[in-house]
Amino acid sequence: MAEVLVLVDQVDGEAKKSTFELLTAARRLGEPAAVVVGPAGTAAKLTETLGKYGATKVYAAESDDAANYLVTPKVDVLAALVGSAAPAAVLASSTAEGKEVTARLAARTNSGLLVDVVDLDAEGVGTHSIFGGAYTVKAKSANGTLIASIRPGSVDPEEAQGTPATEAVEVPAVDGAKAAKVTGREPIVGGDRPDLTEASVVVSGGRGVGSAESFDVVEKLADVLGAAVGASRAAVDSGYYPHQFQVGQTGKTVSPQLYIALGISGAIQHRAGMQTSKTIVAVNKDSEAPIFEIADFGVVGDLFKVAPQLTDEVTKRKG
Amino acid sequence: MTNIVVLVKQVPDTYSERKLAAGDNTLDREAADAVLDEINERAIEEALVIKEANEGEVTVVCVGPDRANDAIRKALSMGADKAVHVSDEALHGADILQTSKVLAKAVGTVEGVDLIIAGNEASDGRGGAVPAVLAELLGLPQLTHARKVTVEGGTVKVERETADEGITHLEASLPALISVNEKINEPRYPSFKGIMAAKKKPVEKLTAADLGLDGEVGLANAASTVLESAPKPPREAGQRVDDEGDGGVKVAEYLASQKLI
Ligand SMILES: Cc1cc2nc3c(=O)[nH]c(=O)nc-3n(C[C@H](O)[C@H](O)[C@H](O)COP(=O)(O)OP(=O)(O)OC[C@H]3O[C@@H](n4cnc5c(N)ncnc54)[C@H](O)[C@@H]3O)c2cc1C
Ligand SMILES: Nc1ncnc2c1ncn2[C@@H]1O[C@H](COP(=O)(O)O)[C@@H](O)[C@H]1O
User: Carries keyword ATP-binding (chain A) (predicted)?
Assistant: First the structure.
């Protein structure tokens, strides 16, 4: 069986959940081979976990350059492996970086590219959910190696025992005139809440929340529900909540079991990022707000009255 | 002197309903109003700010059908100096890789380019890939998803911000390619004077053949093939209640009835 290369999405030697999703999808197409690109020592920290999700091999591409330049070292390593291992496919997470790596790789290896698929079958047919979930589109690669980025949170990770052997591969030397040097990083410090794209419940606040301090009301409800916190662009633009929590057209796409929108009007660009949620609950004092057109349960009222009462009620019911 | 190329794309307005054409699954450009993508207004704004500080020229490059001319005029009325517009029936259905190839050739017609500025992600396809591929094809450093850009002498510094990685500080020598995110700036409105002046600014029209790409681009040559597409049924509104002092309790009851709590 041919190998399927999986670009490991990791921070400081810890794999993100999306990596396990990629390994699970890779098993449908062939033998998953995890590719770790990072500073020396990164692969060793990851091998055991990667094995738990069925990796049969770990390619360790380790060097200082790998961490000190943006995107290109990963493309260089994967392109070399596409040449030497002739994989059936190359998969990466559909993050900003994953999209860039796969796109450059496809250009360099003259291969078909599928961007941001939400499913991938054994024949290599990818499913896209576009225009904020308004359309489902199926596509396949027509040239070369299948190269795809998969939207985090769209494949259920399944464990499968593998005891991967590690194979060191070279990180080709970086040409400084063609690459961007990383001079510093300020990674997102994950709080105690679940990740937006992974959470089964998301509670979001909009401009109606009114200030950064009052986002407390949103957070308290999120915490009793074990939810992630999201925000509309208006809330982010007004400085109520950080950018990485933006949901919508130009923010994250979420598809949880339950989405609660507090003080969000439901502009089409916001809906584009959340309308595939299983159940939608909205609280808005304007009975005409478009969010009610897609809400399964809507309350016309003041979020500062409704949300705290809901928080108390959920706490009570949990006993 | 900084010579800047800004890549602009005309997209279906996100405020209107967007559709795919039933026949060949390509974007139905007639179905929705077409506008200059908002992120590209920010790209133009950034180019103008850099030009105002360092002098130079701003050239708009656009690949799209004839009516994309409206988007180009808007860019020119904001203050860009001239434009290159690649419009060709043969490009119908071009994918990310092909579009990037065409853009690379079109950028190649502009002399002495120091900086290419794109949007980070178009609002139609949400590919977020063209800038990276263009950097690949042109052999330029890519400094993408910028929320802050500084050009000093022959160096460009960028604060990259993405929702997954947080902030990454980047540096490269010119020439280079950057893409901007929506945090970068607030774009200016075209002034009346700007709109009048734009009418006289040069727009060079090119075809795929002019760029030597005849027979290499378009739906038939795409590296990926769409097999089928289907609209999802729209969501329907469910129950709605007025808060009479028990709104929170009512939501809890609903959630319990759905076994969500
Ligand atoms: C290209 C483009 C991309 C965009 N991308 C995004 C995106 O990714 N995400 C996004 O969210 N938006 C996006 N937008 C912006 C979008 O169009 C809206 O402007 C935005 O979603 C509005 O946010 P909001 O609902 O919080 O604010 P508003 O539209 O101002 O709505 C606030 C709501 O709060 C209600 N309210 C006020 N006070 C209370 C109270 N005390 N109790 C209950 N309700 C109250 C009001 O009735 C109102 O309905 C984009 C726009 C464009 C053009
Ligand atoms: N057809 C096009 N013409 C000009 N610029 C484009 C075109 N397609 C993409 N771009 C540029 O690339 C950016 C990202 O687009 P995308 O990779 O399609 O999400 C856009 O904001 C534009 O700056």
Answer: no
